[in-house]
Design a protein that fits this description.
binds adenosine-5'-triphosphate; Rossmann fold; alpha/beta; binds magnesium ion; Alpha-Beta Plaits
């Protein structure tokens, strides 16, 4: 079954003196048990989409069901089955992480004993055991964020919405959040997350959705999205090639001291052969999610032409 199904979903923010079309007919399905990574530039509409899905904002047009319940007509049922960390939300500062999770769970109907056990498990999972009794007001920003993640993961919500859950987390903490998310998905819970870390979206998600200016530009498993882009390979060459030469093989981008060439499979092979003949250093790999993002959303890498000429 689909955990999330959006059909022609649109949102226009209207205020006195203006309006803003934040979502434009977004149609998207997320299968149960998957981890969907929603990516897109600032202002693309990610938070708007997530807020509509988690029933804190009404759509202007179209419809959305979460676990079979309509987000507008059946919002109470939706709320009972989801848990959400909104963007930039902070936990209550007068509680400690253990109390925070405990109260969240008892409010959701868990027994006291169950809430206690689940709270301790989630705290341990996110590396927060030593901070379990420290007031939130005395915790660092990253620790507060982790306490929020522990809180929603400790619940039995079938679908969890996380708006930039790892922003500001250290690399190890980030990985503990990833582990918690993976474990939840293994237990057939559905995770819907937004992130600006494309390595994270790549490592974690089994489905990717790309929003740009309110429009869904691509959606599906990572491999399906890779198959769609013009240049599925990335070649990095240190020297021995000129821009005009590389342009015949794909899309060269000057990276301060070397070329990144986005290219096709056959072209990648030819370039590798040439590099070998010329004794130039070369590395070849499938495109990263960031390369894909740049190709789909386009125009973000601003190549300085002067620098580019120097490198040629
Ligand atoms: N309450 C609001 N009133 C009016 N316009 C809004 C409101 N909230 C968001 N917007 C606009 O809607 C668009 C989408 O915003 P949204 O917050 O959904 O983007 P986002 O993809 O989450 O961006 P970010 O990566 O910066 O969090 C933007 O143009 C934004 O300015
Ligand atoms: Mg946002």
């Amino acid at each position: 079954m689909e955990a999330l199904k959006a059909t022609g979903l649109s949102k226009r923010y209207v205020w006195s003196g203006g309006s803003n079309q934040a979502l434009k007919e977004v149609t998207l399905s997320v299968p149960t048990g998957s981890i969907l990574g929603l990516i897109g530039r600032n202002g693309a509409g990610k938070t708007t989409f997530l807020r509509i899905a988690s029933t804190s904002l009404l759509p202007t047009d179209g419809s959305m069901q979460i676990l079979g319940h309509d987000v507008v007509d059946d919002s109470v049922a939706v709320r009972e089955r989801i848990a959400v960390i909104p963007q930039e939300s902070r936990p209550f500062y007068w509680m400690n992480p253990r109390e925070l999770i405990y109260y969240f769970l008892t409010m959701r109907g868990h027994t006291k004993a169950d809430a206690r056990t689940r709270a301790d498990e989630a705290l341990a999972e996110l590396g927060l055991t030593e901070y379990a009794g420290t007031l939130v007001s005395r915790l660092s920003g990253g620790l507060r964020r982790r306490a929020m993640v522990a809180m929603v993961m400790a619940s039995d919500a079938e679908m969890v919405f996380l708006d930039e859950p790892t922003t500001g987390l250290d690399p190890l903490a980030r990985r503990s959040v990833w582990e918690a998310i993976r474990k939840a998905a293994k237990a057939n819970r559905t995770i819907f997350l937004t992130t600006h870390y494309l390595d994270e979206a790549d490592a974690l998600s089994n489905r990717i959705a790309i929003l740009e200016k309110g429009k869904l530009l691509a959606e599906g498993p990572r491999e399906a999205i890779t198959a769609k882009v013009k240049h599925p390979y990335r070649v990095v060459v240190s020297d021995g090639f000129s821009r005009s030469e590389l342009e015949r093989y794909g899309e060269p981008i000057w990276l301060e001291n070397r070329w990144l060439l986005l290219t096709g499979e056959r072209e990648a092979r030819e370039i590798s052969k040439m590099a070998l003949e010329r004794g130039a250093k070369l590395s070849l790999a499938p495109v990263s999610l960031e390369d894909i993002f740049m190709q789909i959303v386009g125009k973000d890498i601003s190549v300085d032409e002067a620098e580019a000429d120097e490198g040629a």
